[in-house]
């Protein structure tokens, strides 16, 4: 059954006062390799149908949500009845709002978008050449490439019909050799822009740096954070920027004495952190897709249009992520989150290489991992460096140092920026399973807190 037909059938079967149906159809193609050898490849398909039943009560609207995978035509009525039973058992929802009736149109009747192993037709031969070169140089390459395309069909009983096709691709490469371990990764929509030779060239250079080892103690170091590490930290900030939690005094964005910190200066330099569904190369759904309600999302907002939003503008906090319900509570503009994140500093920012060349003495990171929140009131994070921490002296990388555990708040880090480089598309290492669409600059921080030496290698 076509996903849009499943949406129409579920809506026709609904007996409640309102209904929202979301059908997701996904295809995934993947390659994996280890020790300079392709190990697996394949293509999979999956589908999921979500029914949101709305029941009017004397003092509000109750919502029932049930979501199931691989629902066939005969199973749709059972799914609808299960959602209605859930709604009948629930109290009125505090985030209740009228159903959305208008949104961007187009493509509803077309079949779901697809992917296949052919998406790697340019990457696979380049990987083969890279494997041969690595083998000859006594290095080993490990990694994977993944491409997923999800078509989402959203309809409601108020007549709304929306559709979005979302391609999501990434490639991660890890090289091991005498110089230790080095990592590189990229995000992509279709792999046409993936340059395997450039990635492996960067890995070779980093392994060369790692052939000289230098042990350093814990402490605060001038540190250059590459875009991938910046992305992981800024995504943590973005995920913590819910207006409701800030209004309730739960987060780093809560103002002392009540309310939020919207309007306050956060950064020492005029940086901007934004989301835009139409950002080139980072395109994402231009409307809300909410499979469940939470403190950050509302099923009643499904189909609500999304536009470009500055979360931080010229260093000041300007917006927090909002549902219609939280916007009413806070009195702030309605700014729902989008599925991408872009950070930029003043125009004319330097490249990562130029920033290294201007460094008298400091550390250059590769990436961060195992990031965990320690204190939500400060957004204090802890985590580890991974796959290469390098010592820079007089503008040159002179060797690799030991790994560290760090303790930093991305919000506090913004207040201590020494330099913001040139923004480019990047892949977050830690959060790539959940968030791939990011563009970030390299950052220089004069006193990044390497709290302890890590034994990880």
Describe what this molecule looks like in 3D.
The model has no long low-confidence stretch (mean pLDDT 97). The protein is globular. Helix content is 19%, strand content 39%. The chain is an alpha+beta fold. A six-stranded antiparallel sheet has the order 3-2-1-4-5-6. The protein has nine helices and 20 strands. Strand 14 (380-393) and strand 15 (396-401) form a beta hairpin.
Terminal Cα separation, in Å? 50 Å
**How much is the radius of gyration in Å?**
24 Å
The helix/strand series, from N terminus to C terminus, equals HEEEHHEEEHEEHHEEEHEHEEEEHEEEE
**Class by alpha and beta content:** alpha+beta
- Beta-strand percentage range: 35-45%
Q: Widest sheet: strand order?
A: 3-2-1-4-5-6
Largest pleated sheet: 6 strands, antiparallel
Classify the helix fraction into a percent range: 10-25%
Number of helical regions: 9
Count of distinct strands: 20
State the low-pLDDT regions, or none: none
Mean pLDDT: 97
Shape: globular
Secondary-structure topology with pairs:
Blueprint: H1 3-13, E1 18-34, E2 37-57, E3 60-69, H2 76-89, H3 123-136, E4 140-156, E5 161-177, E6 180-188, H4 196-209, E7 213-214, E8 219-225, H5 227-239, H6 243-247, E9 272-275, E10 309-313, E11 316-317, H7 324-330, E12 341-344, H8 352-357, E13 361-375, E14 380-393, E15 396-401, E16 404-408, H9 410-414, E17 417-420, E18 424-426, E19 438-440, E20 443-453
Parallel strand pairs: 7-15, 8-13, 12-19
Antiparallel strand pairs: 1-2, 1-4, 2-3, 4-5, 5-6, 8-20, 9-10, 9-12, 10-11, 13-14, 14-15, 14-16, 16-20, 17-20, 18-19
């Amino acid at each position: 059954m076509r996903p849009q037909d499943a949406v129409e059938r579920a809506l026709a079967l609904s007996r409640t006062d309102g209904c929202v149906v979301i059908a997701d159809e996904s295809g995934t193609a993947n390659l994996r390799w280890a020790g300079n050898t392709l190990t697996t490849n394949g293509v999979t398909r999956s589908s999921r149908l979500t029914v949101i039943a709305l029941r009017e009560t004397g003092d509000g609207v109750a919502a029932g949500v049930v979501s199931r995978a691989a629902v066939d035509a005969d199973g749709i009525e059972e799914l609808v009845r299960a959602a209605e039973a859930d709604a009948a058992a629930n109290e009125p929802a505090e985030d209740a709002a009228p159903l959305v009736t208008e949104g961007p149109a187009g493509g509803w009747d077309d079949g779901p978008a697809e992917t296949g192993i052919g998406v790697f037709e340019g990457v696979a031969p380049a990987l083969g050449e890279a494997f041969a070169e690595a083998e000859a140089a006594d290095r080993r390459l490990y990694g994977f490439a993944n491409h997923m395309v999800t078509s989402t069909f959203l309809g409601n009983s108020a007549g709304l019909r929306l559709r979005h096709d979302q391609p999501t691709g990434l490639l991660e490469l890890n090289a091991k050799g005498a110089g230790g371990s080095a990592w590189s990764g990229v995000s992509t929509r279709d792999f046409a822009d993936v340059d395997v030779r450039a990635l492996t060239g960067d890995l070779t250079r980093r392994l060369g740096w790692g052939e000289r080892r230098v042990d350093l103690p814990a402490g605060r170091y001038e540190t250059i954070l590459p875009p991938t590490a910046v992305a992981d930290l800024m995504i943590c900030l973005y995920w913590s920027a819910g207006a409701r939690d800030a209004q309730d005094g739960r987060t780093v964005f809560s103002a002392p004495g009540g309310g939020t910190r919207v309007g306050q200066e956060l950064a020492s330099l005029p940086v901007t952190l934004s989301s835009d569904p139409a950002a080139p190369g980072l395109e994402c759904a231009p409307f809300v897709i909410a499979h469940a309600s939470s403190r950050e999302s509302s099923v009643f907002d499904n189909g609500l249009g999304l536009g470009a939003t500055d979360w931080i503008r010229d260093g000041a906090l300007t917006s927090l992520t909002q549902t219609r319900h939280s916007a009413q509570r806070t009195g702030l503009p309605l700014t729902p989150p989008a599925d991408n994140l872009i950070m930029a500093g003043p125009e004319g920012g330097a490249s990562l290489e130029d920033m290294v060349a201007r460094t008298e003495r400091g550390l250059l990171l590769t990436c961060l991992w195992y990031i965990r929140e320690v204190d939500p009131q400060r957004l204090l994070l802890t985590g580890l460096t991974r796959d290469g921490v390098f010592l820079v002296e007089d503008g040159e990388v002179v060797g690799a140092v030991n790994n560290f555990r760090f303790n930093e708040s991305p919000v506090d880090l913004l207040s201590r920026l020494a330099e913001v480089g040139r923004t480019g598309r990047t892949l977050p290492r830690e959060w790539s399973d959940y968030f791939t669409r990011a563009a970030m600059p390299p950052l220089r921080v004069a006193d990044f807190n390497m709290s302890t030496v890590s034994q990880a290698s």
